[in-house]
Amino acid sequence: xxxxxxxxxxxxxxxxxxxxxxxxxxxxxxxxxxxxxxxxxxxxxxxxxxxxxxxxxxxxxxxxxxxxxxxxxxxxxxxxxxxxxxxxxxxxxxxxxxxxxxxxxxxxxxxxxxxxxxxxxxxxxxxxxxxxxxxxxxxxxxxxxxxxxxxxxxxxxxxxxxxxxxxxxxxxxxxxxxxxxxxxxxxxxxxxxxxxxxxxxxxxxxxxxxxxxxxxxxxxxxxxxxxxxxxxxxxxxxxxxxxxxxxxxxxxxxxxxxxxxxxxxxxxxxxxxxxxxxxxxxxxxxxxxxxxxxxxxxxxxxxxxxxxxxxxxxxxxxxxxxxxxxxxxxxxxxxxxxxxxxxxxxxxxxxxxxxxxxxxxxxxxxxxxxxxxxxxxxxxxxxxxxxxxxxxxxxxxxxxxx
Length: 402
What we know:
It is a single chain. It is globular and about 65 Å long. Strands 2-8-7-6-5-3-4 form a 7-stranded mixed β-sheet, with helices on both faces. The chain has helices at 5-9, 32-43, 54-74, 87-99, 120-129, 147-151, 176-185, 195-198, 205-208, 232-235, 261-276, 287-314, 341-349, 363-368, 387-401; strands spanning 20-21, 81-84, 107-111, 132-136, 158-164, 189-193, 212-215, 226-230, 319-321, 331-336, 353-354, 357-358, 376-380. The mean pLDDT is 97. Strand 3, helix 5 and strand 4 (132-136) form a beta-alpha-beta unit. The protein is built from 15 helices and 13 strands. By secondary structure, it is of the alpha/beta class.
């Protein structure tokens, strides 16, 4: 069976507005099944987790279902799935907790390719601990962050390496397994920002070699919050700040306060929605298998649209495509000769095309590309984009350049 984008689009109520959304890297639209799951959770009895009354049981089942769904999505252990308000909050929390074991002169390696959420928390934690920070550069011409560029900064004092699974600015997908091998050989831990990667590609944290992996469900059709995956035994060695009566169990010791059960229910529904996009769906197939097949279909669909945009933009003149890595997501950063990308955003917006402009918190990457804080126009393709969306985008860009 082929990927049926029309059927996919029919499941997103917001698309009825007529907007052509190329803003997926900042947050995707939400399918009806996720909205229904959130509503159902809040409509049924709901209480503090327990095993007695219906509200307690519902809450317990939602939490356990959420951990299993995210474990299936990420190839992780459900006992190592941590809920957070956002990926940024989780990274700040874990950087501070890990830094308690650092000494003056220890080192942390970050990547200039990353979103600031995977740079600034480590800089702040290192400053507090008296540790040093080294920054690995990517090639501004090709957009590639090579394993060698990371390896050049590894020493016997390296404690953590923080790197993106995919750049939210230019789409570059570094070779994380190769980086992980080098990091672990140096005796350090690898913290991977998978926020942009998880929206487009199947993830297996064990295969990647990530010790910690964070993502954000609202980038893959779910509610607004963050998730961290790690081995339960590794989490057991970390002791975050918490209230005295709070449980010390893993992963609950990292989750402050009462959990938002409705958000967790929505995230489980988002994972099931992705699995439902498997064009060769077999009702008897496991959810991880259906997720892998669905991601392959999504990748093929998004890549075909990306290639069409790249070919057309290449013929317009006056446009530079900054997304050039050999392995990348369907995310293109465009700049215009003598024109402000914000003007392109506003021009397209008047035609009902949403392609935002800026540096999107990837400040170091934007500066390294010579774009300062201005950045460029970001065209981010998602599973629900179709050929008509692309036609409208390309027509709008051609009219803008004229």
